[in-house]
Amino acid sequence: MSLIPSLLGNRSIFDPFSSEIWAPFTSNNEISAFVNAQVDWKETPEAHVFKADLPGLKKEEVKVEVEDGRVLQISGERGVEKEDKNDRWHRVERGRGKFLRRFRLPENAKPDEVKASMENGVLTVTVPKVEKKAEVKSVEISG
């Protein structure tokens, strides 16, 4: 079994729809806390819907932006828990620090109408789609 698929969490590094900051070997945990923040992207007839698992974060700690009219960016930071000098840690597994996920929106997205909500640690970002009207073109019959 190859190590690369397990490090990427079954994601393709050549995915044209996302560009992620991936820093698995950083020593300062600056941008490695939620590198693998799980995000689902589904397309419905009306919208593109993104759901991100961000347990323990408040909506004030998360930022949703649209860059250049076509790139959806979800970022934020989980701060370090306040430590008491009398505390003795046995294990630290929960991620902390900054995270950033970016997704190129398709042509049928309306980036000016993005809506976001957060409930129970799940961020939902809804990007409405352009309504496609059937275009009818008359064709002249010759002869």
Task: Write up what this structure looks like.
The protein is mostly beta strands and 143 residues long. It contains one helix and eight strands, in the order αββββββββ. The strands form two sheets. The chain has a four-stranded antiparallel β-sheet with strand order 1-6-5-4, with no helix packed on it. Mean pLDDT is 78; it is low at 1-33.
Notable characteristics:
four-stranded antiparallel beta sheet, 34% strand, mainly beta, 1 helix, 143 residues, disordered N terminus, single chain, 4% helix
Summarize the structure.
With 143 residues, the protein is mainly beta.
Topology:
Layout: H1 3-8, E1 18-20, E2 39-43, E3 47-53, E4 62-67, E5 71-78, E6 97-104, E7 115-119, E8 122-128
Antiparallel strand pairs: 1-6, 2-3, 3-8, 4-5, 5-6, 7-8
